Amino acid sequence: MGASSSKTVVETKVVNEITKEALSKQVSSMAQQTVAVQNMNLSGIDAKCAFEATQNFKGEMKAVQTIEAEDAMNMMNEIVDKIGDQVKQESSRKTGFLGISGFDSKMSETKKSIKNKTKVKLSSVQINKISQQMKPTQNMNMKDITIDPCGLNVYKELGVPPPADLIAACVGQPCKFDQDMHVSFVAEQIGKKLTEIIANDKSARDLRTEIMQKTTQESKGLDDLAKAINPFAQMGKLGGIISAICCVLCCVLIIGAGAMSAGGGGGGKMKFKR
Q1: Phi, psi of 239, deg, nearest 5
Q2: Interval 178-192: pLDDT, tens
Q3: Facing residues of 26 across strands?
Q4: Is 268 left (phi over 0), alpha (psi -120 to 50) or beta?
Q5: Would 272 be classed as within a structural domain?
Q6: Comparing C-alpha atoms, which of 271, 248, 274 is closest to residue 260?
Q7: Are residues 214 and 258 both part of a single domain?
Q8: CA of residue 13 relative to chain centroid, distance
Q9: Is there a contact between 143 and 44 (Cβ–Cβ < 8 Å)?
């Protein structure tokens, strides 16, 4: 779900990964076309990963073909559904036993709202335009291209800092040219636009707020439970000492009871030597 300061409902890296998986599936179902790249000129590359600007690529590269309207809609619906599944799993993990009342209904409403927006903002026309930005050719010129596998630029555009753990995981992530480079680029651009749609969707924002509130309640509830179990917890260092002493006394009593039981006979009476 990302950090509490984030305005996104799901982490951008997750969105990009789900998008690439769905796009790869779509590309595989279409007539395959690969382009033999002979020369590649790079300039103005903004890479949010470990990328060597001097790297040369020669070989076959898969090209994302023109996507029809129905295929684009089905693909986007699949992506939104999978993102919804991720949110549900993360919500269950974060909110624990408190849960969210009517979650399934709210999630269904959110997915419906997002799907309606993608029909306009991520139609086949928009996706095909994205594909043309880096279409593989024999003599390929890559200019002013952003390579952002984790979607870090989305946070910048939303005006919030990306989660520290996301930065740590992504900055050193290698960006390598291979036959899936075009698919990866198109998936990143689709993921970026989709994350922006989710971040600006009212239903998604409301659901995110409720999840964060429940997460806070869950954390406080567990803290209160811990204090109830250990009433000395609020007494600081002294409380810790008292608690430790109580534990030791309990252990002594248990050991003593065991000794009495092991002694047998004698009606359970303890004998002392003078």
Answers
A1: -60, -40
A2: 788 889 899 999 999
A3: none
A4: left
A5: no
A6: 271
A7: no
A8: 6
A9: yes
Q: What is the pTM of this model?
A: 0.70
Q: How far apart are CA 190 and CA 97, in angstroms?
A: 35
Assess whether 133 and 64 both reside in one domain: yes
pLDDT digits (tens, 9 = 90+) for 108-121: 999 999 999 999 99
CB atoms within 10 A of CB 44: 10
Burial class (CB in 10 A: 0-12, 13-18, 19+), 261: exposed
Does 159 lie in the same domain as 117? yes
Neighbours of 210 (CB within 10 A): 17
Whether residues 135 and 255 fall in one domain:
no
d(CA 100, CA 92): 9
Cα atoms in the Cβ-side hemisphere of radius 13 Å centred on 16:
19
Question: Number of folded domains in the chain?
Answer: 2
Contact 223, 32 (CB under 8 A): no
Q: Which helix (H) or strand (E) holds 39?
A: strand 39-43
Tell me the residue range of the domain where 250 lies.
Answer: 230-266
Whole-angstrom distance, CA of residue 130 vs CA of residue 185: 9
